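A protein record in our archive is deliberately plain, so that people and models can read it alike. The record that follows is passed on verbatim for readers who wish to inspect the format.
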Amino acid sequence: MEKPSCQTLDLFLNIYEYLLKFLLVASVSSTKLVNPNIIYDKAIQGDQTALKLAESLWGEIHRTINSVVNRLAEKGITPRQDKDAISRIEELQKILISYHEKMGILTPKTRENIEYLANGSIMSGQQPVMMGGPSFIGNKLSLLHFLSEQLATKGVNLAPVFLVADYDGLHKELVRTYLPNPLSEKAHIVDIWNALDYPEGTAFHRVNAPHKSWLDSTLEEIERVTQEFRTKVKGDKKKILALQEQLIFDLWRLSYAPGEKMRDWFTKIWGFQTNEIHDWGIVYFPFGEKEIRKLIAPFYLPFILEHHKYAKAFQEATERLEKLGYKPSLRKRDDHSAPFFFECPHDGIRVDPQLEHRDGDNTISVVAECQHCGEVFGFTGAPSPEGLVTYASSLNARVDSASAVVQEILNPQIRISGPGELAYYAQVRHATIAVGFRAPIFVKYKRAFYNAPWIENLGKQLDNRKIKVLHTSDFFKLLSKWVKAKKSDNAEAVLEAEIQISEFIEEVYDKLSKKRQKKDIAKYLSWQFGSFNPTKFGQEVSWLWFDMARITGLWDYLTTYKRMYTPYSSFGGMTFLNTGP
């Protein structure tokens, strides 16, 4: 048999790449081609072509919760053995106990889980958005706790850690949140931007909450919006709704402290729910805390010493995604990309430094100029862990370096992510491995859509007009099928029902989106799907967590999310929560 030529092999590879691209994205609308997490979803649904590609991007792919739990149970716990790692964990445990005590969220269960950091962790995280941020944060926390419980039943005790990603720069999406509008499809925007006296780009862990008068006026504004929704509810349900809303207002007021970090307000909002209401013992990890930054600083060293290798691997991953038809989330890294930002000593603005490696010696220069004040700062010399610690208060992580240094200090075995995070890990994972970091198993939380009385009323009106919506008997039969499968512990039936529910939701959304010009359909798209404009999709992604919590009640909000997970549940995809007062 004649050996194929290099040209023949190249042609075959080009055809193979084309077929992958066609099979994975040809049937999906162009607005979704930007995010490679679609590969993950198709792999979970059983597409073998997608599975192979997903494994090449993210490593181990597990379709179900049982699968990943059994994998870790089989692997067992392997605590760090070296003295430096043990000493570092002991120091971190002291810092976190002090921080949780200061936040008022240190419970016996939290202490116990902080002790489990010696074994490693499972983790999720999010930037600290004002007023607690979107509802999917509650979803992440619920899956984090559920996985922790399931692992514990197998004798695998890992700390459930939520990363408070306060290294981000101040921008409007961190100090802006959205509520559905009772009068139209347009979102009602609530923000704090004009009340903050910080320039854009300030490291967010430095940002303090403004005077309490801002909170008072904001709660009055939210009350006006929610009051209009309450007019759509009758009888005792209206009273229950008003009471549930008031309890959330009380949480916002009691957890708010003018002059305190905005990050800490975020932590207290969620920490009260997870640790005080439910005794889950979630460990919150404030990345920007001064003493934590000192522990983290030495782990930037591999990025500096191996910056050529890192940039090459990052660029290869980026170009591969582009070739397959996906738009990468992060811009390309080059040989001069430093693994961190500097924080200007005058105003805390994050400044992007340039890294230069002098040929012939071990001298590396990392220097930046603040565009706000014009000061030049940085360091030149032979980098060392000790040297980086001296600069710890000036170093601010990038998204990609943050994932790696957290891996070193927290030793996470599982990382719970959403579509955006999975997208950038498709670029980051191979590059961080190339310079010596390990990587966790990546899993994706299941996106949830939830019900409300006003959405249900509108849905039934559209259903009566033969317009396909979620509020239809066909859809509720699917939900019933899932419930029966869960009760009977039928693993295959649970997986089948979840895939069918996800497909039904996506089909309804795609069909309604083509009729967006009709006002009642546009309003349904906004309220039910969080699609207040064509680029938005995801009710719990678009709306402030308050929107769902006022329906479930504060005491049942997180457990409503938790109930949608079973040991047989698949990762990724979508589901529906039939909430109601």
Remarks:
- The longest strand covers residues 121-126.
- DSSP finds 23 helices and 15 strands in the chain.
- Residues 162 and 284 are 5 Å apart (CA to CA).
